[in-house]
Inverse folding.
């Protein structure tokens, strides 16, 4: 879908405070995943939550609406694209997504930020392919 | 460490652009409001550490890359 985009991470990702510039690219030949990579820095696999966690986007939106300070600040701003960071594992069923702290991407401004969904039930480790789903698709 | 005693309804000013408001005190909980410029990030420490760790774990090691199979949905 969308091509490569250079993003300023503001504020920087926690744990990677010294890195500000990342390049977001779709994973070749796979529409569900994206690479977020810093030159000479870390590389992350991302996905869009709507592919794996159908109700999630709505919950993110209501979080943003209830956060009044944010709402005022961002009132005139573009709606962000929401991505989640994936932690790969050796076994596919152990791959997780960080739903507690999604990544908001403002394409027009070429900015991104990791937002923490305080007071939510989300964690940093949600299974991308939960066992039940595995069984049902044989 | 600077230690100050405040009551509910009282504030602190840090560096003339950050205001810490003590909103409510009940039993062992304190409700705090923070007014700060946008570029100042405020986190609960335990969550801050958790996300830091999660991000570090999520970083894909470059040396390993060729071996990683990107999962496809179904």
């Amino acid at each position: 879908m969308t091509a490569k985009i250079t993003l300023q991470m503001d504020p920087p990702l926690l744990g990677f405070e010294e890195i500000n510039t990342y390049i977001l690219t779709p994973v070749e030949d796979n529409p569900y995943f994206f690479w977020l990579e810093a030159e000479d820095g870390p590389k992350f696999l991302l996905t869009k939550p709507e592919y794996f966690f159908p109700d999630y986007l709505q919950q993110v939106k209501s979080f943003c609406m209830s956060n009044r300070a944010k709402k005022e600040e961002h009132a005139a701003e573009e709606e962000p694209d929401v991505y989640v960071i994936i932690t790969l594992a050796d076994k596919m069923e152990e791959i997780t997504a960080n739903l507690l702290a999604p990544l908001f991407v403002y394409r027009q401004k070429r900015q991104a930020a990791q937002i923490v969904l305080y007071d939510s039930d989300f964690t940093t480790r949600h299974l991308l392919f939960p066992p039940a789903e595995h069984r049902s698709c044989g | 460490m600077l230690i100050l005693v405040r009551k509910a309804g009282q504030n602190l000013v840090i560096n003339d652009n950050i205001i810490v408001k003590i909103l409510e005190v009940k039993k062992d909980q304190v409700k705090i409001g923070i007014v700060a410029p946008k570029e100042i990030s405020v986190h609960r420490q335990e969550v801050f550490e958790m996300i830091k760790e999660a991000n570090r774990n999520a970083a894909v090691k470059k040396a390993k890359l060729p071996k990683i199979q990107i999962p496809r949905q179904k």
Summary: Chain A touches chain B at residues 10-11, 13-16, 27, 30, 32-33, 42-45, 51-52, 73, 85-88, 92, 95, 98, 100-101, 114, 116, 118, 124-125, 128-129, 137 (CB under 8 Å). Residues 56-66 of chain A form the longest helix (11 residues).
